[in-house]
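Hi everyone,

Forwarding the result from last night's run.
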Amino acid sequence: MPLTTFAASQPTSVLLIDPERRLSLKLQDLLFGLFQESLDLATACSLRDGITYLCTHQVSLILISLAVSDYKGLDAVRALRLTMPDSSLIAYGAAVNETLRLDAIRAGAHEVLSIAEISADAFRLAAECALARAKIRQMDT
């Protein structure tokens, strides 16, 4: 089911930061299923490349693997939160335990996903929640 909170005439800008192609492809499939024709997707293989992209582009949603090679996962979440405080941020991993999930939320992620077991409906809900949380944060500031 496509996300209904966005007008089809304006694409949703998304940045996917992931060094591992297998997980990245799974997320891309989920994103295209969620946003369909209204997706403007950029990808980066490292946090450095992602931040370089963010210096010249505004994005609504950032997805970052907790396994980025050029930063520790939680430091990467903090760096993205500082770089793009108004963007929704979803951190993910192949498998995420409860401690890591809570630590990533404390570091600034709006949602944390375990990709190995995610369904399209669970991904849709996580994206909607992350986008709503970022919007609430924007309204507070």
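The chain has five helices and five strands.

Cheers,
N.
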